[in-house]
Amino acid sequence: MQIAGAIVSFFGAIFLFLGALGVLRMPDLYNRMQAGTKATTLGSILFMLGLGIGYYNQICICKIILLLLFVIFTNPISSHALARAGHYIGIRLTKKTVLDTLHDAEQEAEL
C-alpha cells in the first residue's frame, strides 16, 4: 500500500508543481489565480490521499478527510473572493482576454 500511496502523492506533487509554474507563466492576475487554484486544489487532494493510502490507520484517515473537505470548500471560495476584489479595485485583464462578463454586467447595472 505504501507504493500506491507514494505514486498518488507523486502525482499530487506534480500538480502542485504545475500550479506554481502556471502562477509564474500566466499573463495577468486572473489567469494566475485560476491556474494556481485549480492545480493546487487537485494537487493537495492527491497528495493527502496518497498519504492516507500509504500510511493507513483510522485516526489519520479521519484527519485527512477533514483536511480534504476544508481544501475543497475554501480554495475556490477564497480564489473567487480575491478575483472579485481584484476586479473591484481595477486590476486590468491582459490584452488577449476576449470576454469580461463581470464588467459587462456592471455596465448594464449602471444603465
Structural overview:
With 111 residues, the protein is mostly helical. It has one domain (2-110). Helices cover 83% and strands 0% of the residues. The protein contains 4 helices and no strands. It has helices spanning 2-25, 29-54, 58-89, 101-110. The longest helix has 32 residues, at 58-89. The chain is elongated. The model has no long low-confidence stretch (mean pLDDT 88).
Secondary structure elements and their pairing?
Layout: H1 2-25, H2 29-54, H3 58-89, H4 101-110
Number of strands: 0
The radius of gyration is 18 Å
The helix/strand class is: mainly alpha
Describe the global form.
elongated
Order of helices and strands: HHHH
Low-confidence stretches: none
Strand content: under 5%
Average residue-wise pLDDT: 88
- N- to C-terminal distance: 61 Å
- Please report the number of helical segments: 4
Helix proportion:
over 70%
Number of domains: 1
- Biggest sheet layout: none
Brief summary:
By secondary structure, the chain is mainly alpha-helical. 83% of the residues lie in helices and 0% in strands. Helix 1 runs antiparallel to helix 2.
